[in-house]
Structures are given as C-alpha cells and as structure tokens.
Amino acid sequence: MNKREFAKTYRKISPNNLTIETVLTDVDIFLETLKEALQIEGKVKFVKKGTFEVISRKPRVISNPATRERMTVYPKKIVKFRASKKIK
Q: Which residues pair with 18 in a beta bridge?
C-alpha cells in the first residue's frame, strides 16, 4: 500500500467529508512527526497497535552475483515495526 492508497482508506473511514489533498497533508504531517519522534527517542509505541523502533544493522561482507567480487555493506539504521498481539 502506498501513501495515496493509505490516504484513500483514511478518507473512507473518516467521519468528515475530506478532500484527498487535505488527507494527504494529514498523512504527511503524521509521517514527519513519526520521523522526528524516532530521531529523538528511537522508539514510538502505539498502545494495542504496535511499536516502531530504530535498529542498527551490523556490517557484513557480500559477493556480487555477476562478478563474484566481495563487497562490504556498511552498518546502517533502519525502522522496524512490530505489531502487537491484538493485531496479530
């Protein structure tokens, strides 16, 4: 599901009659707020929904399948979502 499909779903379940542009700006604001909160805290928890958290991946050595050349993938941080037991 991309952002536009997410906005359309949000628009359907919303009790107000919203335009797609206002819904897209609301989604953008939510995503920016979530991004800033993850940068500050490193973890955002939605009760009975799930948790977004920043984890760091370890560096590893891989090989290019075409040339068999060994390359190093550097460590990086990614965002992981864990759904709560209520959603599962």
A: none
Q: Which tokens sit at 78?
A: 């990614």
List pLDDT tens digits, range 41-83. Answer: 999 999 999 999 999 999 999 999 999 999 999 999 999 999 9
8 Å CB contact between 53 and 40: no
Residue with token string 């359907």:
12
What is the value of pTM for the model shown? 0.74
Dist. CA 77–CA 41, nearest whole Å: 14
The tokens for 62 are 């891989």
Beta bridge partners of 80: 53
Beta-carbon count within 10 A of 29 CB: 10
